[in-house]
Amino acid sequence: MSETPRPQRPVFPEPPAAPSPAAAPAAPTAPPTKQRRWRDDLHLAHTIANKVDSLTLARFDAGNFTVETKVGPHAGHRGRQREAERVIREQLGRARGRDSVLGEEMPTTGHSSRQWVIDPIDGTKNFVRGVPVWATLIGLIEDGQCVVGLVSAPALGRRWWAVSGGGSWTGRSLSSARRLSVSGVDDLTRASMSYSSLSGWAQTKRLRGMLGLMQSCWRTRAYGDFWSYMLVAEGAVDLAAEPELELYDMAALVPVVTEAGGRFTSLDGEPGPFGGNAVATNSLLHDVALHHLSAETD
Predict the structure, then answer these.
(1) Phi/psi at 218 (nearest 5 deg)?
(2) pTM of the entire structure?
(3) Which residues contact 5 (CB under 8 A, 6 or more apart)?
(4) What are the angstrom distances between the C-alpha of 5 and each of 158, 171, 181?
(5) Max Cα separation, the chain?
(6) What is the DSSP code string of the chain?
């Protein structure tokens, strides 16, 4: 049997100097100066992602990713994702030297009200096993709000992004993109749900509520990691949830989901990526999902 070829690496051209004419207008609640700055930040995120994609995909295709086992309660794998994070930090240091940077592999730098939150490879276990569902996450939080998010999955040939007030998009570049919108499903019996695994729900003593929610849904699949949330933004999945996450796992995802019309909160209903866990939905199913997940504990 012939080997199935890997997908060819997509080419994401450098973003144009100005936003696409098709882009949504700025949100009326955000000052025009902030909108312009956030669009510039998004252009920068695309430029950085282009550079990092070349590095991470080359490692993935070569199959020579250096693996180390993390110690402690959150066991996992890591290796040259530190190299990818260094690349991101170097680019941000040159272009946004006054901004703070928080990442998975290195200490937080800076004390600005503008903080870049990065995960060089979300889905590392997939990466080291040759599963193409992994991505680089680049988010920007300003004054406590997630205002820019970019998710680049080069092995899938996909990229998603959003700016506060500017809509949620996917495509090969800023100038060649499709706007995203969540689904209109308003009943769990017709809903498709995604998650990562059940072990975390058991460890946090929330497994009973999670199983109850899953049994109420029409369909459940463990697409996992960033992809669950991108599928919510695309309307292909109606809700997703995870019981244990870090800020760098979520910050880039929030604008993509919310600008597509969805909601992104913690299991306790706190908006944004600050609660240590996540529920993302098409908005219509959010309250009932939270009710299921909070109604029963193990």
Answers:
(1) -65, -40
(2) 0.86
(3) none
(4) 17, 22, 32
(5) 59
(6) -PPPPPPPPP--PPPPSS--TTSPPPPTTS-HHHHHHHHHHHHHHHHHHHHHHHHHHHHHHHT---EEE--SSS--EEETHHHHHHHHHHHHHHH-TTSEEEESSS--B---SEEEEEEEEESHHHHHTT-S--EEEEEEEETTEEEEEEEEETTTTEEEEEETTS-EEEEEETTEEEE--------GGG-EEE-S-SHHHHHTT-HHHHHHHHHHSSEEE---HHHHHHHHHHTS-SEEEES---HHHHTTHHHHHHTTT-EEE-TT--BSS-SSSEEEE-STTHHHHHHHHHH---
Over residues 43-76, the pLDDT tens digits come to 999 999 999 999 999 989 877 545 455 544 333 3
Neighbour tally for 256: CB within 10 Å:
30
The length of the chain, given as a count of residues? 298
Strands 192-194 and 239-242: parallel
- pLDDT tens digits, one per residue of 113-149: 999 999 999 999 999 899 999 999 999 999 999 999 9
Residue 4 corresponds to which tokens in the numbers above? 């199935």
pLDDT in tens, 253-276: 999 999 999 999 999 999 999 999
Structure tokens at 251: 């910050």
Asked whether 164 and 259 are in contact (CB, 8 A), the reply is: yes
